Amino acid sequence: MTPFKTRPVLTASLALSLFFTPLIPAHASADLAKKNTCMGCHAMDRKVVGPSYKAIATRYQSQPRTQMVDTLATKIRLGGGGVWGVVVMPANTKISEADAKKLAEWILDSNN
Cα–Cα–Cα angle for 65, 29, 16, nearest 5°? Predict the structure, then answer.
């Protein structure tokens, strides 16, 4: 086979692999959550001190995706209270805005 005949197959393969490959690997964001001590208060599917990631994703699912990411990223960085009860989430000002958005995306995808 000549290289010209295989090019469409390679192009299609590359396109499909990019489509089905998440931009942020799940393990990278889980590691980010561990590194920033999120797992001390949150778990994937059960309440610890704070709500589970699945409960958070469910609560915000009615908002447009970009709004959800921005809302959660802000709460991750600045903290908050009154949404899930009396326990206040402390601010995590050491996390960058980009990493907070990665975490927010990962949390929102936890329902899938």
Answer: 70
What pLDDT digit, counting tens, does each position of 3-40 carry?
A: 545 455 444 444 444 444 444 456 678 899 999 999 99
Please give the pLDDT value at position 22.
45
47 contact partners, CB below 8 Å, separation of at least 6: 55
- Residue 74, H or E segment: helix 65-78
The pTM (predicted TM-score) of the whole model is 0.73
Say how many Å lie between the first and final Cα of the chain, rounded.
Answer: 41
Domains of the chain in start order, with CATH, are 24-111 (1.10.760.10)
The answer to whether 53 touches 65, Cβ cutoff 8 Å, is no
